Amino acid sequence: MQINIPNVFNKHLTSLKAICLSGANLGIGGSVADDCVICPFHQWKFRGTDGLCINIPYSTSVPKGSKVKKWISQEVDGFIFIWYHAEQTELPWDLRVPMGEIDDAFVYHGHNEFYINCHIQEIPENGADIAHFNAIHKKNFINGSWVQKKRLFGLGSHHWKARWSPLVGKLKYLAEVNLNHYFKLFGKFDCFRMEVSGKQIGPSIVCLEVNSYTFGKIKVVQYITPIEPLLQKVVHEFYGPRWIAPLMKIFIYGESLMFERDISIWNHKVFHRNPILAKEDASIKKFRLWFSQFYSSNSKLYSEATNIVFFGILYWKFLRTQIVSRTSVALRLTAKWIWWLDF
């Protein structure tokens, strides 16, 4: 999906499809003038408010119905979000209320960025997978990003308690996650306590507020963007008071290492639609029921999106572990906000 985003019209945001009716890319060599986007190929002029072509410089008339698609978009915290729905019917939810505003006293401290080979549902499901926290995030982060590494530093271990719950009614697209963390130093002293409260907003956005005696108050925002089937781009943005900049570098480093432990699992994991779960995994069942609202009958399956045709036994064996096992369980994604641009 290519999108042209001219921030015009008295500072009102508009987002148009970046492909002209001639096939040229409006974002490469195009220009903005008089609240319109002008194609670099033939100079056709498209009105930014609705995408309608209003002028063809070498013609006395404009063909009826000549317009490029206008996307529903919203600006929140310096990011532009584009609404995508497979049915093209359902109206989007407002992101400004659940995301909240960045505290005026907060500044941007940095971000990390990852590309992950997994089903899109795997990543947000992490918050509801209570058992995984102490399974792969217990070891001291100084030991690195790979959970099976031999312990080199015996300073202590991380301990977690978590709770995940969905909202209902008009806010059914939201879920809440709460984490309590402490570090047991030398197996004796409890320190570095943190309380984390967060909102899962649809299938791709998570906003976390971290309260810690060590780091103070921090805000972390996670964005997931599908790049292609079974390839997701994940970005974490970090905000906090200016004075904690040195400590924030440690926090970002530790968070990145912990997240890479999850990635080491996801990159080699097969997504099961109906996994066998213990009774203590009830929150995963709740999550999957909640997440199912973002699928529809017209969302493409993996096989449809990639147009894969299998020829012969050898080709089947080659792709078996990398593609086919996931093809049979790939679900249908419909509604989401896609984060697009920061400025």
Automatic annotation (TrEMBL):
Similarity remark: Belongs to the cholesterol 7-desaturase family.
Task: Output the InterPro entries linked to this UniProt entry.
Answer: Cholesterol_7-desaturase (IPR050584), KshA-like_C (IPR045605), Rieske_2Fe-2S (IPR017941), Rieske_2Fe-2S_sf (IPR036922)
In which pathway does this enzyme or protein participate? Steroid hormone biosynthesis; dafachronic acid biosynthesis; Hormone biosynthesis
- The protein in question is named cholesterol 7-desaturase
Which lineage ranks, top first, belong to the organism behind this chain? Eukaryota, Metazoa, Ecdysozoa, Arthropoda, Hexapoda
Name of the gene: LOC117139879
Q: What subcellular locations does the record give?
A: Membrane
> One GO CC annotation, please?
membrane
Principal localization?
Answer: membrane
Q: Which UniProt keywords apply?
A: 2Fe-2S, Iron, Iron-sulfur, Membrane, Metal-binding, Oxidoreductase, Transmembrane, Transmembrane helix
